[in-house]
Amino acid sequence: MEFLSRIGHIAGTDHIELDIAKEETVGSMLERLCDKFGDKFRQVVLDEKSSCVRQQILIMVNGDNIFIREGLLTRLSKEDVLQIVEAVGGG
Fold first, then answer.
1. Residue 83: what pLDDT?
2. Domain boundaries, the chain
3. N or C end of the chain, less CB within 10 A?
4. Mean pLDDT in runs of 10 for the chain (91 residues)?
5. Domain 2-86 CATH assignment equals 3.40.1170.60
6. Exposed, middle or buried: residue 82 (CB in 10 Å: 0-12, 13-18, 19+)?
């Protein structure tokens, strides 16, 4: 699992390895990560009202955006690489 941009700073690491549970989905993994890294991580990644992934957050499995798959219901296997990136904009 890789955390890019500010997400890595909040997590205190840019890389972590976690066991993938049977039937694990991106959504269940996000909940595990929020429990592990705390409220600040949750606030940056998830919208607090809807619990949906914030618009500026890109989550990829093996380089593919989860929303071209099954979104938060995308199933994970132990070989998968999950990346969480916060988009950076400006001018």
1. 96
2. 2-86
3. C
4. 91 93 94 95 91 92 95 94 86 59
5. no
6. buried
How does strand 57-61 pair with strand 64-65?
antiparallel
Alpha helices of the chain — where are they, by DSSP H? Answer: 6-11, 26-37, 39-45
24/34 Cα distance (integer angstroms) = 15
Positive/negative CA dihedral, 40, 27, 46, 15: positive
Check residue 23 and give left, alpha or beta (phi > 0: left; psi -120 to 50: alpha).
left
Burial of 60 (0-12, 13-18, 19+ CB in 10 A): buried
